[in-house]
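Note to self: keep these together.
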Amino acid sequence: MAIPGVPRGFLHRLKTREDGLAALLFGSRARGDHRPGSDVDLLVLLRKGAGRRVEVSDGFAFECAYGTEKGARTFWEANPGDAVRHRQDVRALFHRVGTGKP
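Structure:
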């Protein structure tokens, strides 16, 4: 799945990471109510590792939360309000065959 209005280069780099399992789009771009200059909010699931950072690519700011499937599940269980709020607007950009549903 492409991100409307955003060049595909950054997503392609995420897809080709050997440790990448999935990428989920959320926030205003997932809902379709973003404004010019809005950042791109992503949850990137990895085999191992975690962190948060803003990465700039092709003129867009990508706010990325990196983590494992277990780490993401633990976060959502500890923050049910966030899980409910984002459940409707999350969009799976990709996930590897053989992994759990993102």
